[in-house]
Amino acid sequence: MKLSHIGFAAATLCLASATLAADTIKIGALLPLTGGSAPLGLAVRDGQRLAVAQINARGGVMGRNLELVELNDESKPELAEKNMQALLAKGVVACSCGVNTGVVLAYQPAMQKAKLPNIVPASAGTKLTKAFQNAPEGNFTFRVQASDTLQAQMMVDYAVKKGHKKIALLHDTTPYGTGGHDDMVKQLLTHDVKAVSVGSFKIGDADMSAQLAKAREAGATVLLVYGIGTEQGHIAASGAKLGMHLPIIGSWANATDSFLNVAAAHAEGAISPQTFVEGATSTAGREFEAAYRSEYKRARMTNPTAVAGGHDSILLLAAAIRQANSTDGAKIKAALERLSVPVPGAIATYNKPFSEDDHEGINLSSAVMAIWKKGAIMRAPL
């Protein structure tokens, strides 16, 4: 009889252990997986999946595997609240969410109310990490993408350094594009320069001849463009049709396949600020590239900044959960603000990347200017 009880107890213990092992730590990934921004959303997901696999292969976090809970936001702000509630219902403890700034702004209040930490892997809108900066419960939004403010600084400084004094600005009419435009105007003022021409365009516009003709009439020698890849590609293609060969310095989406697929040969020489390009110099960066090639069997990395942002956001969340020894959102947030151990990532080795007052994980030291050369994105000449 005793043996029977022992056997029952052992079986119960085994069952409990199996249940614990199956109890994953769920990380939300609300991204555009279809529609115009899908190439970026899928690239972020590529990086996230790589990081989750690497972490789980090393034993996970707190003895538990990470699980990526993926949802398609379709790039639609009107679905944002519903999608965020669906993620919360699935028991996520933190998120690596965000490609389109307008979408993130739409679900950010629900995320903040739930005290759900989010490390934004791709959205660049400056206001994202500032919106709840003074909230009594603390700010739950972090980022590992270069903010619009930082990108605008890099774009303007690069143009001025190259001797351009007649600068034309173009931007899309989304919160992303208008925010980037405002940041570029502010940065131009630091050089005592005013744009000779300003033009805007809507998502889906293909003919940019009117905006470009205005820039040409103003005598512009360079185009600074804030928009997503497809429309930036149409600017390059429209310029070629008009016989205009002005240099294009675009926001980070300029380095995506969405841009290349539209611009085709006219992508050559286009420049943009990036957090990652292939040919990494760090050990962690090279390991990241090797893992990507092994997993996805592609000749080059598709949308490298998006892949790297997805990857590194997961690494940082794992480090914070490990340090907090908890899946409580407030404790994860506090750990992110006080990471005690450096985290080697694809973009950088993150040494105390965040604080209570600063949730931007990327600065000038971890961003580069990149250029399209023969169908590949690489570091631009200084």
UniProtKB/TrEMBL annotation:
UniProt keyword list: Amino-acid transport, Signal, Transport
Regions annotated as coiled coil: none
Signal peptide positions (record): 1-21
Annotated Leucine-binding protein domain residues: 24-361
Pfam families (alphabetical): Peripla_BP_6 (PF13458)
Family according to the record: Belongs to the leucine-binding protein family.
Protein name: ABC transporter substrate-binding protein
